[in-house]
Amino acid sequence: MPEPHPAAFAHRPAPVWSDTTAVILAGGLGIRLRAAVADRPKVMAEVGGRPFLAWWLDWLEAQGLRRVVLCTGYRATQISDYFGHRHGCLTLRYSVEPEPLGTAGALRHALPLIASNPFLALNGDSFCEVALATFWRAHLACRARASLVLTHVPNSARFGAVRTLPTGRVVEFLEKGVSAPGWINAGIYCLPREWINGMPRGGPASLERDWLPAWLSRGLFGFRTRGRFIDIGTPESYAQAEPVLAAASQAALA
Questions:
Q1: Number of domains making up the chain
Q2: 47: domain range?
Q3: Is 80 exceeded by the pLDDT of residue 5?
């Protein structure tokens, strides 16, 4: 599918929330989780009898989105065979990596399928209880070039903390390993197509390690939430996922 020229987005009307494309990064190998889930992609790990990814799709649908692109790689057909091209009111499309491309490379590969500007990008192996439409509107209101959700955890050692100015502008990504409460990157982004289009084609690259620090000078905005957060990257955290997701779902229905 040919990629739209960036100029095609230059004179479009103001963005509409329900038209926003959500891109879920679901191509990771999940090496640390193999002890608990050895036969499937990490996003297909069962939580409460359902794939972890299904919880994310439910959340996106409940918040009014309609278009999702799934960036898949490792055992990609397990995901597409299970979900097909619909999940409730969501239309699902697949961007299959020809080789492991990392989080940034996967977004660059998926760009021809992304129909909105800006768009949402979400890590498929973590979940954060956040009002996505509120995050998206805050991104537009503050005229940020790119934004990310920040969530507060009692110990940021595993993730590394994010430092912001009182205005919300992100000024530093701190190294992992420091045991202290802090605000961390929740793995949810509002990004402009042109920044992704400017990435080199081909080859692996990490959004978190290679590009977010490089974009600090361009203007990154941090949106803070104290909603529930879970990352299923280790057997220990995976074991904690069901009560977190169940509580978030119950709260959303209340």
A1: 1
A2: 17-253
A3: no
